[in-house]
Design a protein that fits this description.
This protein has about 400 residues and is an alpha+beta fold. It has a single domain (about 5-395), classed as Cytochrome p450 (Orthogonal Bundle), CATH 1.10.630. It is built from 19 helices and 12 strands. The strands form 4 sheets. It has a 5-stranded mixed beta sheet, sandwiched between helices. It binds protoporphyrin IX containing FE (HEM). Protoporphyrin IX containing FE (HEM) binds near residues 98, 233, 234 and 283. Protoporphyrin IX containing FE binds near residues 87, 149, 238, 284 and 287.
């Protein structure tokens, strides 16, 4: 069987039957044209998230796969920036950088931002409240995460359009397999612009520090390229994913009116509804790793330099992990879904993302009674990213 998760847009829209098939028949799958492995079962995906024979220097794995006309540019970006990304590092350098960044995303730090997140949420909802309808993705979910992460870093609100564009292009490049002329050109141009912009902002913060994350990073003794590279990561990682989480949650609730009614009746279920969304519709259905040394896994010979894709979307629906996995049930006891990954690279922004989504959903449901769908949804269904792009809703 041809693997769904690479090239077939039809299958990417509804990959779940293929997940089921692969978990049963082909749990560790080698796709020759890409020299890459795909892993589908929960136990394997979770185990391999912790395996040190797999490296996060995966961006290096994308260099040979770059289109020939972009290889030099991709190589340059990798050598100077992408290799400094927190999510590209392994071992001690990874732990050291994580120690720098983690405190800024702790429960305590995030609690400090709650009033600002509530205010931004309120302003976005005020804009559409009177009209009685909106495209939840475009008018809200697309806006809030970038406002939050930009204000946290110290990127002025007026720049957020540019940030959204850069971030979309960068994420698209790594989510669309294999790269196309368009995803390559957009990624290279946007990344260069983003680097120039962040270098400028960093210079300003070095001379006049403010109470933002970029100023704190500027005073941390980290190298300039490391700061710029990781500011880039935070802007991109904190944007697309949280947008998709909020959209997927609203979409799932609208498609399951019994669960929506249950939530309205007991809003303390909101954190569980958010985790159930991350289980059923993780924003990142796959995560890449680079095989760092030859080794045998489940009878297969993995070779150094190959890419390996961890199937989060499939693992989260594995019946060996969760009972009745195709059912959306906001009352489930929290289990360890893999929507935020697992192991040393577990999402550093998970507390922020959960908090943001829960403020957004709480406000939406309490301010807008009679919430319902208002026409067809349109979803981004890429190999590495999934969520509603257009989600029309209406209220009374
Ligand atoms: C619903 C929202 C989110 C989802 C589904 C998500 C998902 C993930 C996943 C699956 C990983 C693991 C990557 C790997 O194993 O290679 C990860 C890591 C990461 N995430 Fe998130 N993320 C979300 C929100 C955020 C936010 C809001 C931020 C930042 C403000 C963020 C920043 C990061 C960073 C920096 C890493 C790398 C951590 C490391 O390598 O140590 N994420 N995220």
């Amino acid at each position: 069987m041809e693997p769904f998760c690479l090239v077939d847009p039809e299958k990417l829209r509804h990959p779940f039957p293929d997940y089921e098939y692969c978990r049963r028949e082909n749990p560790v799958f080698f796709y020759e044209p890409m020299n890459a492995w795909f892993v589908f079962r929960y136990a394997d995906v979770d185990r391999l998230f912790h395996d040190e024979r797999l490296s996060n220097a995966r961006m290096g794995g994308y260099v040979p796969g770059a289109l020939p006309s972009y290889r030099e540019a991709v190589e340059w970006l990798f050598a100077n920036y992408f290799r400094h990304w927190l999510l590209s590092l392994d071992g001690e350098p990874h732990r050291a950088l994580r120690r720098h960044l983690q405190p800024h995303f702790s429960e305590r730090a995030v609690s400090g931002w709650v009033p600002a997140i509530e205010e931004m949420t309120g302003e976005l909802l005020d804009r559409v409240a009177a009209q009685g309808f909106m495209d939840f993705s475009r008018d809200f979910a697309y806006e809030l995460p970038v406002l939050v992460i930009s204000s946290l870093l110290g990127v002025p609100a007026g720049e957020r359009r540019r940030v959204i564009g850069w971030s979309d292009h960068l994420a698209n490049y790594f989510n669309v397999i294999p790269p196309t002329e368009q995803t390559s050109a957009e990624m290279v141009d946007s990344t260069r612009e983003m680097i120039d912009y962040l270098e400028g902002l960093l210079r300003q913060r070095r001379s006049r520090p403010e109470a933002d994350l970029l100023s704190r990073m500027a005073g941390s003794g980290l190298e300039e390229a490391v700061i710029v590279a990781n500011a880039m990561v935070l802007l991109v990682a904190g944007h697309e994913t949280t947008r998709n989480l909020m959209g997927s949650c609203v979409s799932l609730l609208l498609r399951h009116p019994d669960q929506l009614a249950r939530l309205r009746a007991d809003m303390s279920l909101l954190p569980r509804a958010i985790d159930e969304t991350l289980r059923m519709e993780p924003a990142n259905p796959i995560m890449a790793r680079l095989v760092a040394e030859d080794f045998e896994y489940a009878g297969d010979a993995l070779r150094r330099g190959q890419l390996l894709f961890l199937g989060i979307g499939s693992a989260n629906r594995d019946p060996a992990f969760v009972e009745d996995p195709e059912r959306f049930d906001i009352g489930r006891k929290p289990g360890k879904h893999l929507g935020f990954g697992s192991g040393p690279h577990f999402c550093i922004g998970s507390i922020l993302a959960r908090r943001e989504a829960s403020i957004a959903l709480r406000e939406l449901l309490t301010r807008f009674p009679g919430l319902r769908g208002d026409g067809p949804e349109e979803w981004v269904c890429q190999a590495g990213m999934r969520g509603p792009l257009r989600l029309p809703i209406r209220w009374t």
